[in-house]
Write a structure and sequence with these properties.
The protein starts with a helix and ends in a 19-residue tail after the last helix. It is α+β, with helices and mostly antiparallel strands.
Amino acid sequence: MAGRMWNISGRTVTHPAIPDDAGMQVFHYPKGGKHPGFAVTMTIGPVPGRGRELFVCTLADSSDDKANPWARILAHVASRSPPAAVGAVLALPDGILGRSSHRHVLLAPAQSLSARHLPDYEAVMETRLLQLVTLTDREADCVSAHGGEALMARMAEQGVSALADRRPGDTRLTGST
């Protein structure tokens, strides 16, 4: 059903750190379909227990279906008890994104999906879709001080993509907004 929603076939991805009894599956939908500029990796699980599905959008397609870092990150956030609130910043497992400067994720309302299509997507999934936005240490500190909406507004006005792997300093965190 999600593949129809994205208009592209997806495939199951996993990571050795995800327990067999996690109660969810993670699917990767490569670039193409309704979102040709980015890939979508998302949880698909028993919604009544969670009341939401998590997704991440990336500029790169997944290359390792058995040790997918995005699957591990999604499972890491989904397994939080109690569930992390929208606006929460969570530390990522050490080294999960290799040499990336992103060491945290912000649990945010969908930033990358079309606002026009989001209600339809959520109706198909029968739950709210929340996006994980990766953050550098400085961006995580900014969210702690000013909130996620303020950071996302700064990024938007600077033309900084939430999908890209940003270096520390790519986002100006002082000034307007």
